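can u pls check wat happens w/ cytidine-5'-monophosphate
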Amino acid sequence: MIVTLDGPAGAGKSSTARALAARLGWCYMDTGAMYRAVALVALDRGVPLDDQVLLAELAEGITIEFRNGHVVIDGRDVSTEIRTERITQATRPVADAPPVREAMKRVQRRMAEGLDVVTEGRDQGSVVFPTAALKVFLTASPEERARRRHREETDRGNSVPLAEILTAQSRRDEGDRTRAVGAMKPADDAVIVETDGLGPEQVVDLLIAMIEERCRP
Ligand code: C5P
């Protein structure tokens, strides 16, 4: 069974998807981390970020695993490295490239084959898993999302002004929404969940109730 969680950055997708997968005892797939991983390997190997064919070959050629909250590429733990600003920037042209998205769709479907999976991203319900048992589009107001990001950065010891986070976030949202292929949008049959004022546990409870409802004979 597949549950998809799509939505903008800061809506609480990662913490929700991780906690939901743990509660259900299912696999967890972080597709943003997969695009980030391709960008990292491309930079390491000197693959130009505008060579879409080579990037797509790379996407299908590397092995990405999710092990206890860690992202591992070809046996190397890259969890921290893929979250740096350098990789966030490099991921944009990678995720915008249609051949890379086609390759990722195949890889993601192959990874989920025969398993129970909670997958998070931008296009999981709308493109990659159109027949998923439950499709959720998690969202929150721009201010709430920026505040959460600001708290995360502060916890990591980074003092980034809230206004700066809000501006960067609007730019990313716009890029995600207007991407020619694989644009971020709720699937037609997605349930929209607004997470303002809700903690991850409350959102997980809500989603578990929806899954139980759908699985009831
Ligand atoms: O979610 P995260 O910020 O880690 O995503 C990294 C990048 O990958 C973002 O630029 C996002 O737009 C892109 N992405 C995507 N499709 C997905 C998941 C992420 O294009 N399914």
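The first strand starts at residue 2 and ends at 6.
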